[in-house]
Amino acid sequence: MSILYYDPFTEFDRLFDDAFATRFLPSTTVETTEGGRAGRGTQRRGPWRPRLDLHENKEANTVSAVFELPGVKSEDVNIDIHQNRLTVSGEFKADIPPDDPGYVVRERPRDKFSRTINLPAGVKPEDVKAKLENGLLIVSFPKVTPEQEPRRVAISS
């Protein structure tokens, strides 16, 4: 049997955020400035949430969480573990000022980001490994610690 570390409330939050952002703050609206140039469109409020893939390796007894963080340097990323929750946060730092008049459309994120996932019970912070390469942050942790593995108890007669 495979254990999936899935938090349905995260998807509900995303569903409501997207529904309300579409209804009240349409992201496809392009505001025009003087001279007919497109200005900054309406932006979503709150931290941006990077995309995430979870991969289970049964042979190695590990789970890998892969976060998409294109253009982010490792010194701009924080990984915190608190009460069996792993939080990846940081900030996209743009070299170009946000009001540069040369841009017609700006869709890439330029803001703070945060994403939290639940860890299996018993995972120690020193068991969590992370590396950032080619815009992907890969965080690996054990699926089941040795203390959590099922043990057979003999019945005495």
Could you give a short description of this structure?
With 157 residues, this protein is mainly beta. 11% of the residues lie in helices and 29% in strands.
Q: What would you report as the Rg, rounded to the nearest angstrom?
A: 21 Å
C-alpha end-to-end distance = 31 Å
State mean pLDDT (0 to 100 scale).
75
Specify the overall morphology.
Answer: elongated
Percent of residues in helical segments?
Answer: 10-25%
Counted beta strands: 7
Give the strand order, joined by hyphens, for the main sheet: 1-2-7-6
Question: SSE order, as H and E?
Answer: HEEEEEEE
Strand content: 25-35%
- Main structural class: mainly beta
Task: Provide structural commentary.
The radius of gyration is 21 Å and the shape is elongated. It is built from 1 helix and 7 strands. About 13% of the residues have low confidence. A 4-stranded antiparallel β-sheet has the order 1-2-7-6, with no helix packed on it. Strands 3-4-5 form a 3-stranded antiparallel β-sheet, with no helix packed on it. The two termini are 31 Å apart. The chain is mainly beta. A hairpin with a 4-residue loop joins strand 1 and strand 2.
